[in-house]
Automatic annotation (TrEMBL):
Gene3D superfamilies hit by this protein: Glutaredoxin
CDD domains: TRX_family (cd02947)
Xref: InterPro entries: Thioredoxin-like_sf, Thioredoxin_domain
Annotated ranges, domain Thioredoxin: 10-119
Name the UniProt record assigns to this protein: Thioredoxin 1
Record organism: Paraburkholderia rhizosphaerae
Length: 119
């Protein structure tokens, strides 16, 4: 796995406030063991900026969750492989399999439901 993502593979929660410009491959994401949430968006996206406090609050309740914040856009293969259409999109995965998805969250309850689906 690329160096940027080694800390994510360990299961530690991301403390990034910006979306990573480089991304792992779909194969690398699918190979991650345990619980992973992949968040797609961009730093300039108004919806992403408005949702960030909700996302941060939800992740505060799930501190051990691996959180990958990946910049998405045209020509970005990881977002295309997940068929991301709107930002932010959060894909909740267990052992490389999508379990739940939240698009443009408007309250913490939406995110909590997806976290609950992982258990």
């Amino acid at each position: 796995m690329r160096r940027l993502y080694q800390s994510f593979a360990s299961g530690a929660m991301s403390t990034m406030t910006e979306y990573a410009k480089s991304a792992p491959t779909r194969e690398e994401v699918d190979a991650l063991a345990g619980i992973t949430v992949v968040e797609f968006g961009t730093d300039w996206c108004g919806y992403c900026q408005r949702a960030q406090p909700l996302i941060d609050k939800a992740f505060a309740q799930h501190a051990g969750t691996r959180h990958l914040k990946i910049e998405d856009g045209p020509g970005r293969p990881l977002g295309r492989s997940f068929r991301v259409k709107l930002w932010p999109t959060l894909v909740f995965m267990r052992d490389g399999v999508e379990v739940a998805r939240v698009v443009r969250p408007t309250d913490v309850a939406q995110l909590e439901e997806s976290f609950a689906a992982l258990n």
